[in-house]
Amino acid sequence: MHSSNIHIKIFTLFILTAILISILSPNFLFAQSREIVAKNGDGIHKILRNNGLDPAKYTNAFIELNKTRIGKDNTLLIGVKYRLPDAESKITVQSVGEELAATTPTLSPTGTKTAPLAAGKTMRYDIFGSKYANVEIKSNELKGAVYYLKSGHGGPDPGAMGNYQGNVVCEDEYAYDVTLRLARNLMVRGATVYMITIDKNDGIRDVSFLKADKDEVCYPNLPIPLNHVKRLQQRVNTVNKLYGKHKKSFQRFISIHVDSRSKGENIDIFFYHDAKSKTGKKAATTLQKTFHAKYNEHQPGRGYHGTVTSRNLYVLKNSYPAGVYIELANMNHQRDIKRLIIPDNRQAVANWLADGLVIDFKNNK
Q1: How much is the pLDDT for 21?
Q2: Structural domain boundaries, residue 41
Q3: Same structural domain for residues 41 and 145?
Q4: Taking a C-beta distance cutoff of 8 angstroms, is the pair 146, 191 a contact?
Q5: pTM
């Protein structure tokens, strides 16, 4: 009888264990998941939002659940059924941010990412070049702010190209130089900064004509695709994955470019925001007002005519953090190029952008 009771207990334990395993298995968790058919224009983030799911929380779960049905670069295929994650289920999937944290030191020697530092400390970041590598943290006024800085084009694509005094002038090099200067300015004030476009050997260059190359990569070290759409997707995906790591922080996405217009069109620095982003519009307007005040202070009587408008741009429409898209000049206008090639002018632009972003942070924290 005693032996019989032991067998019954063992059998009962086996049954309970089998039930428990089946309940905890991913198949069981997703058994009741809703399904949706992808339509033209649908993406993972759009589908999640339309179904009441926060993309920052459920993107990884969606990808894991539908990994055999998703196209290249996590695109959705029209007419294919996709399962939606259960809002109640808790799925632990290592995020790309965690993977980066495991492979990238908090204070990267390349300077591709920085963490907030105490005022008074000096750190070395070789990405800024030998002259500017030592960065003294002068204040904590941007402590708690996270910035994703992306200069346009890079890698196989030089972007807009102009010519000045027999020298070829490429958009990606000048946009990158201003972006790098801006990154350093933000770090000096205690911000956390991610350089999304990275050139590990250019550094800040105090020369007029910046030599073009094709060795830029996307954070942390991804080759930049030649295909325009894939390049935009790569950068937006990178920013969105990092966004999830800093969900409770103040975050901004800044994209810097040089425009290409008719030769007769002289332009001032102007700003785009996404039409649906009130925060993006407010940030862009703050930057514009800062430039207006700076021109009045440093060049009274010159006037400043930079605008703030909405535009349906992929990087603004699809990125999680509020974003501002900045055009520095017209690459086809000789006076614009002259303004752009002067190193002190590029530094002034970076300084004024940083000042505007400080105002934006203080008004919104």
Answers
A1: 42
A2: 2-83
A3: no
A4: yes
A5: 0.72
